[in-house]
Amino acid sequence: MKTLLIYSLSALILLISACSTDKIPGVYRIDIQQGNDVSQDMINKLEAGMSKSQVAYIMGTPLLIDTFHPNRWDYIYSFHPGNGNREQRRVTLIFNPDETLNHVEGDTRTVARVDLPQNERKDSNVVVPLTEKKTSLFGSLMNAIGLGDDEPVIEAEKTSEIEKSVPEKTTEQ
User: Fold this and answer.
1) By the 8 A CB rule, do 97 and 71 touch?
2) Eight-state DSSP code of residue 118
3) Which residue has the higher pLDDT, 114 or 73?
């Protein structure tokens, strides 16, 4: 009687587990990326009248070039996180018969160049000493654990000259 109960429970567990979904809790699933990852910066660089080679330089090789419509390039990007829903984006570029860019279609937005945010770039200067300060064995051990005096000795004139030569803030256009 016990063996019959064990066999029937085992069969029941196998049948119930076969009906479950493919997402087993606690199992790591990788993120799957396919296609061309087209960013908003790439689309903002496109202008009407650009040649196909200029567009390919900015956007990369298209995922689809239809043989029946050679003036249409499709950039498709699909991202499926391991534990989430799939996301798909599509950008279609239409060219004129003279192989210049006519317009952009798809689930993206184009922004006028005047409305683009200006990126501020901060330059920083790193001073590397040309010679290392010689320390004893005990001093180097103290420096290794962070208790020693490990600041390099640099002449004040050279440091001020270097800091004056590098601009603090510039705008990138």
Assistant:
1) yes
2) P
3) 73
